[in-house]
Design brief:
78 residues; mainly alpha; 4 helices
């Protein structure tokens, strides 16, 4: 389990999907391929996808050094 401080950013499946130009369902599939997620203890989400992804885990999964690098990515499917 990763140690993170309270000031680190995290993202929802919807935010990640929008950034990549794909759906939250595809982001859920990424979790099955190793994208690390967590569910906040005080979560009040009404989303079908209640998990969150720490920025560091997101960048590592997509092999990006910065969040700007991540924003340049677009999902192209298989």
């Amino acid at each position: 389990m990763n140690e993170h401080n309270d000031k680190q950013s995290f993202y929802t499946a919807e935010e990640i999907g929008r950034s990549l130009g794909t759906t939250p369902e595809q982001v859920k599939r990424f979790t099955q391929q190793g994208l690390t997620t967590f569910i906040p203890a005080n979560s009040r989400t009404y989303s079908k996808y209640g998990f969150r992804v720490w920025e560091a885990d997101l960048l590592a999964f997509f092999n990006c050094k910065t969040f700007d690098d991540f924003r340049k990515l677009k999902y192209r499917g298989c």
